[in-house]
Design brief:
- With about 350 residues, this protein is α/β, with parallel strands linked by helices.
- It has one domain (about 5-345): TIM Barrel.
- It is built from 12 helices and 13 strands.
- The chain has helices at about 20-30, 50-60, 85-90, 115-120, 120-130, 150-165, 180-185, 200-205, 225-240, 255-260, 275-285, 290-300, and strands spanning about 5, 10-15, 35-40, 70-75, 95-100, 135, 170-175, 195, 245, 310-320, 325, 330, 340-345.
- Helix 3 (about 85-90) packs parallel to helix 5 (about 120-130).
- It is globular and about 50 Å long.
- The structure holds N-carbamoyl-L-aspartate and zinc ion (2 copies).
- N-carbamoyl-L-aspartate (NCD) binds near residues 41, 251 and 265.
Length: about 350
């Protein structure tokens, strides 16, 4: 096959940041994706409907003219989020989900939740009422727990009990990294519980953190896992199961902050993500399943219409830039400097 035509994909997990970085990165997503679920982990976090509306306006402003891209906004859940905020959020028509960051789990999560069942039950009950999905960074934060086990233990101690308590709550487990998560998601009700999958967790295992030396640009959270986990995630997404859909988790951090004595977690994948997903599906001999993953399963889960326009991927090897340079610094894309097979072309 030399050309793949896809209904325009959406990105169901994206960090656009704000200020200079937002202006730099937003076109990379808008070029290939119709919509994106925009993460609220700014400084300060987006905890209110008013802040989300203002943030959405700044994204629209940063978009190049004549691009059609809709940022779907999210609220950052805290111990103090009031159930009325969920009603407001739903009524606003711009907020599509609420994000759970366990306090301390990842970038800008210090204002996140310290005790989900103790502090957030009334809010979660209101979310069921309002049919508002909960998006989850699924890792426990106990420093005693080995970092490679944090997702599995989160499933056992938080996620499974949550779903038992509130079986009607729509939940997306974000950026899954383990066979345990795959099995758990497969065991849940279709249409109620789903997962997003990043390009890095489909293409890399934990060896890539240390290949030939420390590789800070492959460091993200949840951290890359063993090869068996990567293979389980590839099998899940290429099987055509509707519970899995595209979420890049593209998370830009300036080069200096990645190449540092205490480097930030996050991989900048927006410019290459679509080519990388195509690579995964082609290598699994499952290109026929690519479009459902990129363009159907996400909107179907969120109860939104699928996009009406299309995009093409052409078999035309291209070299990923070594870096993108801006006034504030440099961003290093995933697969920096490597050659990829599938080139996304503009809308058709
Ligand atoms: N994935 C990451 O490693 N980093 C994300 C936060 C997140 O999604 O956990 C970021 O905002 O930088
Ligand atoms: Zn996360
Ligand atoms: Zn993320």
């Amino acid at each position: 096959m030399e050309e793949i035509s896809l209904v325009r994909p959406d990105d169901w997990h994206l960090h656009l940041r704000d200020g200079d970085v937002l202006e730099a990165v937003v076109s990379h997503s808008a070029e290939h994706f119709g919509r994106a679920i925009v993460m609220p982990n700014l400084k300060p976090p987006v905890t209110t409907t008013a802040a989300a509306v203002a943030y959405q306006n700044s994204i629209f402003k940063a978009l190049p003219k004549d691009t059609v891209f809709t940022p779907l906004m999210t609220l950052y859940l805290t111990d103090n989020t009031h159930p009325d905020e969920i009603k407001l959020a739903k009524r606003s028509g711009v907020i599509y989900a609420v994000k759970l960051y366990p306090a301390g789990a990842t970038t800008n999560s210090q204002d996140g939740v310290t005790d989900l069942f103790g502090k957030c039950l009334p809010v979660l009950e209101e979310m069921v009422e309002q049919n508002m999905p909960l998006l989850v960074h699924g890792e426990v934060t106990d420093p005693e727990v080995d970092i490679f086990d944090r997702e599995k233990i989160f499933i056992d101690t938080i996620l499974r009990p949550l779903i038992q308590k509130l079986p009607k709550l729509k939940v997306v487990m974000e950026h899954i990294t383990t066979q345990d998560a795959v099995r758990f998601i497969e065991s849940c009700e279709e249409g109620t519980v789903a997962a997003t999958v990043t390009p890095q967790h489909l293409l890399l295992n934990r060896n890539s953190l240390f290949q030939g030396g420390l590789q800070p640009h492959n460091y993200c959270l949840p951290v890359l896992k063993r090869e068996i986990h990567r293979q389980a995630i590839v099998s899940a997404v290429t099987s055509g199961n509707k519970r899995f859909f595209l979420g890049t988790d593209s998370a830009p951090h300036e080069r200096k902050r990645k190449e540092s004595s205490c480097g930030c977690a996050g991989i900048y994948s927006a410019p290459v993500a679509l080519s990388l997903y195509a690579k995964v599906f082609e290598e699994a001999d499952a290109l026929d399943k690519l479009e459902a993953f990129t363009s159907f399963n996400g909107p179907d889960f969120y109860g939104l219409p699928r996009n009406s326009s299309k995009i093409k991927l052409i078999r035309s090897p291209w070299k990923v830039p070594e870096s993108y340079t801006y006034a504030f610094g440099e961003l290093i894309p995933m697969f920096t400097g490597q050659t990829l097979e599938w080139l996304p072309s503009s809308s058709i």
